[in-house]
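User: We ran a pulldown and think these components assemble together. Before we commit to crystallization trials, I'd like a predicted model of the whole complex to look at. Sequences follow.
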Amino acid sequence: MLFNQIEFLILFAAVFGLLVVIRANGPRKLVLLAASLYFYAYWDWRFLGLLAFGTVIDYVVALAMEATDDARRRKRLLLFSLVTNLGLLGFFKYFNFFIESFQAAFGGLLGLNLQTLTWIILPVGISFYTFQTLSYTIDVYRRELPACRRFTDFALFVSFFPQLVAGPIVRAHDFLPQLTQDRPLSWRRAGEGFALFSFGLFKKVFIADRIAGFVDGVFASPDVYGGLTVWIAVFAYAVQIYCDFSGYSDMAIGTARALGYDFCVNFDHPYLSRSITEFWRRWHMSLSTWLRDYLYIPLGGNRRGPGRTYVNLMLTMLLGGLWHGAAWTFVVWGFIHGGVLALERWLRPALAPRTAAWPAVARALLGWAYTLLVVLVAWVFFRAPDFGTAAAVLRRMFVDFDGVLWVQPFTVFAVLLMAAIQALQLTPLAHLRQPRMLSVVTPAVVFLCWWLVLAFPATGFTPFIYFQF
Amino acid sequence: MFTEHDAPPRAFAVRWLAGLCLATLLAALLTAPFTDSVVPYVNDPAVLGLVPVPGHVHRQRAEGWGDSRFGRFGVSVHDDVTALRGPTVAIWGDSYVEAWQVDDPDKVAAQVTALCGADGLTGVGVGQSGRAAADVVFLLPRYEKLFSPEAHYIVLPHLSDVLPDGLRFFDDPPRLVEVPFTAGSLGLRPILERFHLQLFWRAARTAVNGADGNRVVRLRPGPVKRPGAGAGGLGGTKYDRPVVLPSDATLEYLLAALDAATERPLVFIYTPAVPRIRANAVETQDQDAAAARHVAALAARRGIGFLDLSAAFVRAYQQTGEFPRGFHNGVPGSGHWNALGHRLVAEAICADRADRARPGGGSSAPGAR
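Assistant: Here's a predicted model for the assembly, 838 residues in total across the polymer chains.
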């Protein structure tokens, strides 16, 4: 079920209506749990078992870990949880990838045809809810979090429908305490949630979906189009993926807020970043902090010398890339980000004193331009279906500019609009973007978004990009 | 993020209602230049069907960027086709001839007038979305009573326009059925047009029917069985698949009906979807070329001309780098003809007319009338 489907609005209205009538916290949570399971089953009920299996395993493992002080037993239990969760994720997400990679590397040599084995369907949201439950068991193992005693609370934490299939990756220590408190509904929260949901819907449907056709067209035939068109397409993809994913996050956060729950912010004007390090503090923050806390720091972080720090950064980003998708292009995307993160860490001590005397504006502009260039080049690998396409796009961007010129006005408008909205954050007018429930401006902007979404919908089915992850 | 305290429901509701009003006003003002207008239709007894209200100016923005003024009898470019003096040619077709995507001076009919107007010739476009060659069988005699074209050109943007479609042209046994043009919400359209409510009309339609107009609300859990999935179902549009011709007898039935509908010369103008961008290359070979040649040969036996413009379209692309189809707000090479496409068709009509004027000439078809 997608947030921009009429069925979701029906589900939300039903759930909200029930929560208005039911005042007690326990029954309310049961309503939310039932709605969440229905939300997931709407895609494919057969995968509810997989969701339930992971939920039961982590619930039991956490309780068992808490019940013992035996360090070896605790470690074994954690290992069991990790192997189970990552095993399921690996099987469902990467089985086809490994078969295809093996086929490509050795299939011809050994005379094998393994393509018939690539039949695994990727369960929606498995990457998100696996990371969510992993963080819970690791936190319990570290004794940073008490194990959740009420199974329905834990099941709701795993499956809460606003964030189930595409995040934000909610941490147990943020969400489980909310389940133990009464979460009163209010007009203000409902209005805030509706406003956030509407802004997210606008970003997804009016911006991302409407420029998707242009981006898809250019990436399908990069050898045909000229340099300017390809550059516009790469910029447009940067806008598309931002609006698609941050739009989904806004809708998730807004839905949860209307129902009385709070999620962490997932995006903070990432394209204003002046370094890749800063970019990862602003982009998909729930994933970047997860990778930091559960991968980079356990690997040693920056505590074992510069060389090991660079290796840790690279490993973290390579795995981050692979988390996004089972394809080598995602690995290269992670490699670029990991490499540049390591490079920044290496060069910063040398560069900082030399550029200290430069005007702040010049430093900011240079940093911003360099970051944007790295991010755009990396997006090429993220978007391209294969290395041939990525190479063709890069060739058109930097080497050979001849080809068909296609400048789609709406796409250019959308890129400029998003640039202006991001840039607004740097001006004293930034406060205008803060929604105000007692002002007429926020409702006016909200309804304007709805008019535009309804009057100018993109045709064709454009699922959320992050659903494939 | 939010700074205010909880508002009382009454103040909350008042402000949200005021916001809705303000947003509605803003949306209407901001989007007016970018929204397709609503076309009102009227039943015309002369042609026994619905035609756009004469005098209405339609604004098309979703594909291309054009303004079309409708004359009487559903004919654009000319206010009153019965008032035309001098020789005319009729150009029949579907939305390609209707051509809302381009301004009136760029439409094929106007370009015919401009290109061969030295001879006093006037082009008359009789196009309506969804029309196929079978419809022309019924319409030809009615329009010949209104004006007297010296020749009829029937545009075929795709060969499916001469194939049985199970709607108006049936196979086994071959037969033709007149399918009246219909448009939804006929009573509402004049009001929407009069008060410029197209934005709200579009929004309401999306809300009710979905973006693609085929909303089906499903509340049952998945998985959903998709028709065609896993059964070798063919994706894409009709332009992505080669046509499958019916029996010659079926095609000849249609050609005979067209032949019987008029004494004037009849010429098909075939404009396949080339050149176009496909699979990371510019495709210049018409996948239906052999089928087109076969239809042309059958047409020639009836004395009906057949102009295949694929070579002209490809040549224009190679010379100018411009595609004859597609617009800046669509995909280059895909969609309706743009101004260049209309000009190429107009040139073909003018050339055919000049050829026809020569002894033994006409439509590159032996036996053409």
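Residues 130 and 401 of chain A are 44 Å apart (CA to CA). That may be worth checking against your pulldown data before setting up trials.

User: Thanks, that helps.
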